């Protein structure tokens, strides 16, 4: 139980940290845990009109609000119906993973995942990927370069770098050919050498 509480507190802290300075937009998702009320818990999405529909308290307009402000509004609403409610609200935000990844696209994360876990969500690396040369982009600018398998989110945080909503992770391609590509290159070279030898012998 203690471990669960520590994890929940960590999620709240990360959520507040990641959304600091970021406003809520349509399509943003939130995980809500209402203790002893499983029917009120779940993942909820801000609709196109900026409203967040939640059981019991109906709809709340949250578009354009800071996460901490929206969280306080939600807690206050639940307090009108529940006595001393114990509620955890965590943002699930979207990032993009592109480049040499098996399933590039947009993914929802909570911010507690490791870099390698995020890569696994996207189907893992292709055989042409360079795991030592990944880039983290924010608003079109590279803010960090790192090794996927040797860098944790904690290490990024120590460098004052956090994975934030709308960030893009790009997996670069290796310059060196793969083993399969080498075999094709060698095979082609041998075929060319054989052809040249044949041409030379015919011209003698």
From TrEMBL:
UniProt xrefs under Pfam families: Poly_export, SLBB
Domain named Soluble ligand binding: residues: 95-141
GO molecular function, one term: polysaccharide transmembrane transporter activity
Keyword line: Membrane, Signal, Transmembrane, Transmembrane helix
PROSITE patterns with a match to the protein in the record: PROKAR_LIPOPROTEIN
InterPro entries cross-referenced by the UniProt entry: Poly_export (IPR049712), Poly_export_N (IPR003715), Soluble_ligand-bd (IPR019554)
Domain Polysaccharide export protein N-terminal: from-to ranges: 23-88
Signal peptide span: none
Transmembrane segments: 182-202
Protein name as annotated: Uncharacterized protein
């Amino acid at each position: 139980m203690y471990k669960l509480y520590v994890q929940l507190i960590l999620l709240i802290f990360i959520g507040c940290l990641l959304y600091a300075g970021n406003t809520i937009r349509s399509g943003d998702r939130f995980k809500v845990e209402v203790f002893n009320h499983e029917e009120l818990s779940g993942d909820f999405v801000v609709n196109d009109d900026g409203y967040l529909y939640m059981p019991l308290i109906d709809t709340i307009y949250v578009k354009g609000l800071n996460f901490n402000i929206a969280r306080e509004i939600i807690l206050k609403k639940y307090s009108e119906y529940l006595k001393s409610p114990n509620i955890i609200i965590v943002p699930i935000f979207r990032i993009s993973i592109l480049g040499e990844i098996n399933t590039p696209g947009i993914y929802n994360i909570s911010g507690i995942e490791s870099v390698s876990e995020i890569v696994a969500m996207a189907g893992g690396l292709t055989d042409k990927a360079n795991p030592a040369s990944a880039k983290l982009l924010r608003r079109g600018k590279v803010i960090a370069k790192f090794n996927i398998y040797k860098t944790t989110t904690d290490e990024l945080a120590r460098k004052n770098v956090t994975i934030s909503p709308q960030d893009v992770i790009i997996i670069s391609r290796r310059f060196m050919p793969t083993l399969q590509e080498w075999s094709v290159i060698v095979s082609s070279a041998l075929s060319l050498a054989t052809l040249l030898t044949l041409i030379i012998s015919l011209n003698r």
